[in-house]
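I'd like us to work through together how a protein chain folds, taking it slowly. To get us started, please write out a protein record for me. Label the sequence line and the structure token line clearly, so we can match residues to local backbone shapes. Once you have written the record down, we can walk along the chain together.
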Amino acid sequence: MAKKKNEKCPNCGKIINSEDRKCINCDSSIGMKWYKFIIWFQLIVLCIYFTWLGVSFLRGTIYGGTNGIAASVAFYKSYPLLKIIDNIQGGILILLAIVSLVVRDWLVKRKKNGPKRYLILLVVVAIEPILYSYAVAIATQANLEGYTISTMYMSIIFFFVSLIYFKNRAKYFNQ
């Protein structure tokens, strides 16, 4: 059986047991702020956002402000394949909303594969808009690169920051 390494508290410098999440000397938590941001903000906001966006795609209100349904009727008359693509997109986004809550639950319970599943979710969130953009481009001959690139960059940044973060804290996820 491998012996657990001890660490220094980032606040006071005292040696602490690697299994502890708080320093006994100064009561400082051991660098879990990013984790708390993910479980208490990011994944909840993702769930709300994906639900709202998914419903907007399913209802056809994604194409305009107050007259979204009228705008979508015009779009769908011009591009009938677009309605099918939007319905699929809406379903995928609702599914991603549910998955974000499931991943949040895994992280909250500090399950061993929670961080890995979170990283997979980030990859899917990066790839999904690209696939949607290509499908819309095929159906409409339109270019949606701006939407795709901004979403992809955000997901890539979160992925690499989280990869390093969770790799350094793997010992806390062992349920």
